Automatic annotation (TrEMBL):
Entry similarity comment: Belongs to the ubiquitin-conjugating enzyme family.
Protein's name according to its UniProt entry: Ubiquitin conjugating enzyme E2 R2
Organism (species): Apteryx owenii (Little spotted kiwi)
InterPro entries: Ub_conjugating_enzyme, UBC, UBQ-conjugating_AS, UBQ-conjugating_enzyme/RWD
Active-site annotation: 74 (glycyl thioester intermediate)
Residue span, UBC core domain: 1-155
Biased composition (Acidic residues): 187-219
Record-linked PROSITE patterns: UBC_1, UBC_2
Keyword annotations of the record: ATP-binding, Nucleotide-binding, Transferase, Ubl conjugation pathway
Length: 219
């Protein structure tokens, strides 16, 4: 049973219910608010994470060039870090241990907004998307499927008690500008005080030497 929020997901998710972690700490269920829809997904982390990539699967029915019928996402960042010239991917585009939940979610959202039609996971969706794109929206078959899916996700959101935003302003998160960090100034002040103390000690030592020199004068 899902019961606790994932800390990284909390930072990258616009709604507190949109990213939760299961008891085994290796599986994360997420939901995405994008294009005014409410899409649920499942991320499973391997035992050797972060050295191996997690798997990302949408639980919501998705019609997209880079999503398989079963919901698996085809994206370079989730591919194992091996050198495979046949894939057409650069090693730098694949998974590496510096990636995290936030970068995964950002990459998937970017892919949803800008499909990669050169390496489709769903050929039919890719062809349909290209027709819609090349016709500049006149071919409405792709857009109509997406519209129906969005309406279906809104019904699911209502069941989960989530309010799907209807405007860009509602979708964006308002954040406060962080206050200036004074730690560097404090560090500078400490170092400055230390320098002053060192100078005072040097002056005191010099005075002592002057007193000792008086004994070397001729009587």
């Amino acid at each position: 049973m899902i019961h606790v929020l994932h800390p990284e997901g909390r930072k990258s998710s616009p709604h507190p219910k949109l990213c939760v972690i299961k008891k085994d700490q290796n599986e994360v269920s997420t939901s995405r608010l994008c294009c005014l829809s409410y899409d649920q997904a499942h991320i499973k982390f391997p035992i050797d994470y972060p050295y191996s990539p997690p798997t990302f699967r949408f639980l919501t029915k998705m019609w997209h060039p880079n999503i398989y019928e079963n919901g698996d996402v085809c994206i370079s960042i989730l591919h194992p870090p091996v050198d495979d010239p046949q894939s057409g991917e650069l090693p730098s585009e694949r998974w590496n241990p510096t990636q995290n939940v936030r970068t995964i979610l950002l990459s998937v959202i970017s892919l949803l907004n800008e499909p990669n039609t050169f390496s489709p996971a769903n050929v039919d969706a890719s062809v349909m998307f290209r027709k819609w794109r090349d016709s500049k929206g006149k071919d409405k078959e792709y857009a109509e499927i997406i519209r129906k899916q969005v309406l279906a996700t809104k019904a699911e959101a209502e069941k989960d008690g989530v309010k799907v935003p209807t405007t860009l302003a509602e979708y964006c998160i308002k954040t406060k500008v962080p206050s200036n960090d004074n730690s560097s100034d404090l560090l500078y002040d400490d170092l400055y005080d230390d320098d002053i103390d060192d100078e005072d000690e040097e002056e005191e030592d010099a005075d002592c030497y002057d007193d000792d020199d008086s004994g070397n004068e001729e009587s």
